[in-house]
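Input (Outer membrane beta-barrel protein):
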Amino acid sequence: MSLYFPIKTFYVAVFVLFALNAFSQSSSEKDSVSSNISYENNRQRFGFFSMGYHNPNTTGDNFMGDGLQGKSGFDFKFQMYVYKQFFLGLYTGASYFDVKDVELVGNYKKSTLNESYLYIGYEFLPADRMRLGALASFYGDSRFKNYYSKTSNVYQVDKGNLNTFGVYFNYELSSHFMIYIDYAYRTTKTEINTSTELNQFFEKGKYHSIGIGLIFALGSKDVLSAFID
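Output:
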């Protein structure tokens, strides 16, 4: 099963949840404004959308580490706080690679890796305006589009499963706007069919990712608190 089809349904559900959350909090937010409560005293959020740029760096003795060189990437995330600082999220993005050794990976010149995964994690609030988070994916998939030329649109597709572990640092510029820097270690287990001798080399690809971006926060209550109140 692929994540690409459920993504649209997920975002529709998120929009509905956010609309209900905003409605349920409208009166409390008015009280907060009238009493001039600063966001430092109420840092809980319903969730956030983010968009960012990342730099992928391949590693290890595998088809990615030995055969590909990372160039750039972009990503989008939606993160929803289920209770307090425990969160669930959806990541989708793409990473771009050049081929540095065609003898190892095949007769193509570049590759685009489309990535999607669901993740779970926890966020810490160590100081004013600062947020530290740790996360791990629990379901993800990857899709390589391997182009035979850097200028043509002819490619082959290789699919796989994606696992991610990551950490991030957010800095609050305002109550609902942040910047971030993050790090992730990703492993993709491919479905590439090859000979027994090469199976271990193509079975898994590993890479690091360092990114920066912008965050737009939503609401002021976690999901459970918003619907219980």
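DSSP finds five helices and eight strands in the chain.
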